[in-house]
Amino acid sequence: MSVRDIRNGTPAPLPDRGERDTTVSRRALLAGLGATLTWSRAPSRAFADTPPDAPGPPTTPYLADLAAHGRRLGTRGGTIRTLIAKARDVRYLSVYGYSRLIGYDADLNLRPDVLERVDVEGGRFTFTLRQGHRWSDGHPFTTEDFRYYWEDVANEKALNPDGPPTFFRVDGKLPQVEFLDPVTVRYSWDRPNPMFLPALAAPRDPLIYRPSHYLKPFHARYIGKDAADAKAKALKLRGWAALHNRLDDNYELNNPDCPTLQGWVPRTRSPATRFRFERNRSYHRVDTAGTQLPYVDTIVMDVASQGLLVAKTNAGEADLMFRGLSMPDIPSLKEGEAAHRYRTNLWPVARGSEIALYPNLTTADPAWRQLNRDVRYRHALSLAIDRRTLNNTLLFGLGTEGNDTIVSDSALFEPEMRTLNAGYDPAQAAKLLDAVGLTGRDGSGTRMLPGGQPLEIVVESDGEAEMVLDALQLITEFWREIGIRLITKPQERTNLHRRSIGGLTVMVAAQGLDLAVPTAIMPPTELSPAQPEHYSWPLWSMNVESRGKSGEPCDIPEVRRLLDLDRQWRDTDDAGKQAAIWREMLMNHAHNTWVIGTVAGALQPVVGAERLINLPKRALYSWDPTAMIGVQRLDELFWDSGADKRAEVR
Amino acid sequence: MITQILRRIVTMAMTLLVISALVFIIIKLPPGDYLTNRIMELRATGDASSVAKAELLIQQYGLDRPVWQQYLMWIGVMPGSVGFSGLLQGDWGWSFEYDKPVADVVGDALWLTLLINLTAVVFVHLVAIPAAIYSATHRNTAGDAVVTLLGYVGLAVPGFLLALILLFYANRWFGLSIGGLYDSALTNQPWTWEKIRSLLAHLIVPTLVIGLGGTAAMIRRMRANLLDELAKPYTVTARAKGLPPLQALLKYPFRMSLNPFVADIGNLLPHLVSGSVLVSLVLSLPTVGPLLLEALRNQDQFMAGFILMFVAALTLVGMLISDLILVWLDPRIRMGLR
Amino acid sequence: MNRPAMNGVRPASGHFVDPAPFEPESRPESPVATASAWRLILRKFLRHRLAVASALILLALYATVPFVEQLAPYGQARRNGDFLYAPPQGVHLFHEGRFVGPFVYPYRAHLDLDTFRRDYKVDASAPQPLRFLCRGDGYDWLGLVHADLHFVCPPKNGTLFLLGTDKLGRDLFSRMIYGARISLTIGLVGVAISFTLGLFFGGVAGYFGGLVDAAVQRLIEVIRSLPELPLWLALSAALPPNWSPLLIFFGITVILGLLDWPGLARAVRGKLLALREEDFVQAAELMGASPTRVIGRHLIPNFMSHLIASATLSIPTMILGETALSFLGLGLRPPVTSWGVLLNEAQNLAAVQLYPWLLLPVLPVLVTVLAFNFMGDGLRDAADPYH
């Protein structure tokens, strides 16, 4: 099959075409980890408008029970306009479009999504695909697509020199992968692999399957290296691997020819200033009335410069908009609501802390290293921050003050995690600093290091985050009270990374914990040096990542405990044990203040047109695990076509 | 004459070579390169599969080689992974950011840049010439002061701020959609009357903002030139003969005062590209300016390099052409002695 | 320029009689002493009223530079946490018909959680008189003396926001005054650099001609054929990341200066090419003067006035350049305060729509740029006193 055939929308006749007539008798079977839903009525009418040779939903679709979430059944049609700051950002549709093999629902339970069922026994994961599931171009989606990924992509040196991603490794060992039949695939490890399913549900889909029928004609193994390279040369690409990478595009969403399983299929090639996506008619979700999702036919993304996103939203030029808007934009957005008939929903951001300070425990300078490692010093810095003022100034007083930790919506939360060592007590802070031995002061009242130089902390930050710079301005004042001079140093992001890895930073200001509404089964990687990059201990992280080849081994017992706990979490699939590990790690953080948190609980404006139904007024917003608005199901939004129609739907 | 032109072309080629080296140095001045930066970012987000892709590209585009080798490969005098393929061979390189050949990315933007800037140039002349004539003939009157002042205000207000303000009120008062070259709903549609109208409406703000910056300088020079010419004996003679004032003005002094502008054609271009960057950025216009800025920021080296080389080449050609026109206009000017 | 000839054009003036007294040294044939040429320039310049007014304005502006700390009612980083985005506060003289001297009415702040805006109500019942020559926020004057004297201070337990406050509750007026220090000096320092470079390259090219000239010409051509933006970008990206804000400031001025010289160099070269054919140069050379002496003693004084005029005209370009660089996030960054930084903070919809006073820093930029332009024009007209 050549590229051209697919682009023209005329796929070759499929062998299983006969099955199409049996759609009425299909059965929804939702087993595995999630709750089983019952089937309400036959979805015969919904497909009346699909031409006979067009792709359709699987025989056993995912049944979306909207009523159970207090949502309305919708009608199909219409276009959602949204705005992006640069052409590359179209890829975020694959994040908040959120179709995963297995994914989180709105309550953050893992449930099979693209897969019909998932069976887990220790280290053995058996995935069952949906009968009659098709790619967006109508080709069947089978375990061959999993095999193609595993053998010809993940383990192909030319495409992935380092082999499959790390969540496939347990103690460095890869699983045994079996393709039992066209709808069953099994991954087996000797031991449990709790990293596996959360990785599949991640905001960035690891895509452990690929459209084999589409990609094989470009793979050296199937057409020979010379032929594959020739195809690449014809497109001015260097080598077949580059061409394969380019065509294999279920994340970047730049290749309209690449079949997908997601709700919408890209229809525009870059460069462009307007990107169009059309509903995938093979999509696997169906509502209880039998209407195939997504309800909305088309998504349109207009590219506008970052500085204009708010202005354009305010002028009613977007029907749905969230990425690129932030809390300071709320007054502007509210102002345009009435005139342009949209609503500014305010979703709490689930993040450990809007601004956190990371004292670098592995910094190169010995004097600073010693100081940063002193828990009394870190506590003093934390106690000297007037979080109430930060809250009032930056978050309209609506935020939560305290450590950089998980938010109270998480079942793992305990109040102490946020409040321990995070009050405002400058007197106690000054006492602690005196105890550390920082008693000498220079002419301007700044404390001095033992070497005689002033206690002048250079805090580096990613210069693009305006709120962080504002917060630092305030923290400068708070710390001046206890005799510490703070110098703000905005850096280019890549530069900051480079300096951090090089051990050159003394302290970094950045956003706090990303995964801040965890359940026990989500990996606690961010809390220990197991995280590949962490501003509090970049060299230890490097050491763990390189398995001891670079960086420095961790030499603080409390942090080693964090690493041990992370290891223990990976060794078990017992959610109870995992929850205990999470709690211990979080309390370890609260006791030791590895990261100095400030205020959490910013509000993310999620602007939606008034007539756009099923967009929650309030829900948690985060990257991981909610995939921005992903778990709230973009495919369930629909356009209310008027009051009369509304009666009909009811 | 011909040999002179040939000589100029040879020196032009040499200059371009020097510029290409300079451009490459400038682009490579900041530490790191696009791909290593990207790899670092991907590592931080734990995106292993993309890291592999990026590492592959590093080798293919020779970013792991010394800078001088990269330069020679870029201009096409040293073989890369697919043999000789550089500027000399007409391969403009690869944009990492867009994952496409540079030519594909830049193509449309070049035309739009030209369109917007030409509109601005036309606007500048339409406004500045009458204004300059008025202020030269009404020297030291209130009218002269007002015209000059207005011109300078245009020069003094930072364009990026003016653009945002105009944009906002154009939307509030006239319902013009914010930013872009036309209403985004018309993006992938054929050129209908409605689309053309939308385009024209959207051109007003950028034209004003880009143009206003140049108007003051133009008025000032034009006015000074005109005053010089008006003071010359032939003008006095013409007036003494009783030529009607308008004719006495337009026939010779005006024509002569245009001369220096011809000399400036070459310099117009780089100026316009720089000048429109900020405005294009604010107004979200798809011109080369924002592309260049983005490419320089991301160290998307081949893209930035190509745009810079293209502008430089155009400038040199522009300078040559303006010299030729000058020689043709005024034989007293010798080639090579400008 | 060309005044006598202009008068001749006007037939109405008829018989031309210069009202000024006859001064023999002003005759073009006898430029006896350089001093008199300067005096002529001054005289001619003083006749240009707009230019003189501009010069006075600039003088006043630059006079504030050393006394920023005293003039600003608040310190540079002083926040007023209860008054975020407060609109400008009017200064009144009469309360209920009675003269009380300059005073302000206090603000009552209220956060409206429906619109997410802060409303400020003026409490017109309680006038708060301003204090003059008073003690306020402390500062280190010129980095030497610690003091807290201000020209004007907010009332006791009150506020004085002449031009409103920003997102952190910092007084915009004070920040603009602090910004002036950096924005105004950046132009001067930048021009000094470009002036030196321009003089050097232009002088060398114009005097020696030939191969040297060709080389300089090519260099100018190369620099001018590159848009200035990438050069800005690349050079500011190359500034070491661990520099202090002050060093960054100097770095930026150097960059602005480094890119500005070709225009000046061309002017110098052109003038020199014309002048070196003059008899007095030949005479000097025949008498055995060294090139340095000929350039320095005979040529440069001849067109210095011109150069100063063109340099004056390029200062505003530098000031605007700094705002552009700050806008791109390449120039100075907060917490350093310059006009460019302030304008960059106003570069969003909210400023235009809800907090228009944040746009006010455009005014000093406007005034300065205009003043420099008018003064430059006047200087240029005056630079050729013999016409």
Please give a structural write-up.
The complex is a heterotrimer of chains A (650), B (338) and C (387). Chain A is 28% helix and 16% strand. In chain A, helix 7 (225-234) crosses helix 8 (240-247) and helix 19 runs antiparallel to helix 20. Chain A has 21 helices and 24 strands. In chain B, helix 7 crosses helix 8. Chain B has helices spanning 2-28, 34-45, 48-60, 67-75, 102-137, 142-156, 159-174, 193-230, 233-240, 245-262, 265-283, 288-298, 301-329; strands spanning 94-95, 100-101. Chain B is mainly alpha-helical. Chain C is built from 14 helices and seven strands. Chain C has helices at residues 3-9, 34-47, 49-64, 68-71, 172-208, 210-224, 228-238, 245-258, 261-275, 279-286, 291-327, 339-345, 349-353, 362-383; strands at 92-95, 98-104, 107-112, 117-122, 128-129, 131-141, 145-153. Chain C is mainly α and 387 residues long. Chain C starts with a helix and ends with a helix. The interface between A and C is medium-sized, with 33 and 27 residues.
- N- to C-terminal separation of chain B? 15 Å
Indicate the percent of residues in helices of chain A.
25-40%
Number of E-state strands of chain A:
24
Mean pLDDT metric of chain A: 87
* CATH architecture verdict of the largest domain in chain A: Roll
> How many DSSP E strands of chain B?
2
Strand content of chain B: under 5%
Q: What do we call the CATH homologous superfamily of the largest domain in chain A?
A: Dipeptide-binding Protein, Domain 3
**Sequence stretches where pLDDT stays below 50 over 5 or more residues of chain A:** 1-53, 643-650
Structural class estimated from helices and strands of chain A: alpha+beta
Spatial strand arrangement across the major sheet of chain A = 18-17-19-15-20
What's the number of domains of chain A? 3
Radius of gyration of chain B (Å):
25 Å
Helix count of chain B, per DSSP? Answer: 13
Shape of chain B: globular
**CATH T-level topology of the largest domain in chain A:** Dipeptide-binding Protein, domain 3
Low-confidence stretches of chain B: none
Largest sheet of chain A: 5 strands, mixed
Structural class of chain B: mainly alpha
